[in-house]
Design a protein that fits this description.
11 helices, Rossmann fold, seven-stranded mixed β-sheet, about 260 residues, alpha/beta, three-stranded antiparallel β-sheet
Length: about 260
């Protein structure tokens, strides 16, 4: 089983109206599983889009993982990132973070950071150059001329209604060709919304990925329908009916569950 043993160093931001929370390498089992499931292509070039990138930690973590695994030399990566909040996006482009974030990284990951001053660090040039920032965009109704092999929307669907979730997933399906990563969504409608536009769960390492969201796992009784935590928090992992969708983070377009996964 994949495990994620390094404690997170959460980054919390607030611009007076909107709040955000992110971290570097927030879910390592998920990152590894994404790379294991990327489609094989005749031309080894991959386009990746990070919606709701906040202050950039998810996109830079992905870029560092490319280097750690050697994927940066085997394939061409076009990484794009956007967020609805222009202040968060500006901070992501500046890429300066409190030095304390290093405490949540492995020694191998720390190599890809440099000191800015006594109090701040940033990803090294090779990492920063991999990420291209777009203009501020809502993930609900964004449009793009080009398609993306992988789209990531982490911890954002919780801030929209169930109807907007369905709209957002349908919209993403127009420019996403393969993998979709979601977290913190409306659990009662997520299967319907994904099936409607041809997405199925990838259940590889599903329990390890679930458990790696350690800051979101709460007792069942604390996250009943109607509570503020219902679409954000997670109960302890269990193979309840529909767990393949409710507890999953990684989905593929145009595939159905295998017979063994359906059991």
């Amino acid at each position: 089983m994949l495990v994620d043993p390094t404690p997170k160093r959460m980054l919390r931001v607030y611009d007076g109206e909107q709040k955000g929370a992110t971290a570097f390498f927030r879910n390592r089992p998920l990152l590894r599983t994404i790379f294991e499931n990327l489609p094989k292509k005749a031309e080894p070039r991959y386009r990746v889009l990070f919606h709701s990138v906040s202050i950039g930690a998810e996109a830079y973590s992905f870029a560092i993982h490319c280097h750690l695994t050697g994927a940066h030399s085997e394939r061409k990566w076009d990484l794009y990132a956007t967020d609805l909040n222009p202040q968060f996006l500006h901070q992501a482009q500046q890429a300066c973070y409190p030095v304390q974030v290093l405490g949540g990284l492995t020694s191998a990951e720390q190599v890809y950071f440099e000191r800015v001053d006594e109090y701040q660090v940033r990803p090294i040039d090779d990492i920063r150059r991999m990420v291209h920032f777009l203009t501020p965009t809502s993930f609900v109704n964004a449009t793009f001329d080009d398609s993306f092999d992988l789209v990531m929307i982490l911890n954002s669907l919780t801030y929209v209604s169930e109807a907007e979730q369905a709209q957002a997933i349908a919209n993403v399906s127009r420019y996403n060709t393969n993998l979709l990563v979601l977290s913190a969504f409306h659990p009662d409608t997520i299967e319907r919304d994904l099936r409607a536009v041809g997405y199925s769960p990838i259940t590889d390492n599903i329990e390890a990925i679930h458990n790696a969201w350690e800051e979101k796992i709460m007792p069942d009784q604390a996250i009943g329908r109607g509570t503020p935590e219902y679409s954000w928090a997670l109960p302890p992992f269990a193979r309840i009916p529909g767990y393949e969708y409710k507890y999953c983070a990684l989905f593929r377009k145009g595939e159905s569950l295998s017979p063994t996964e359906q059991c």
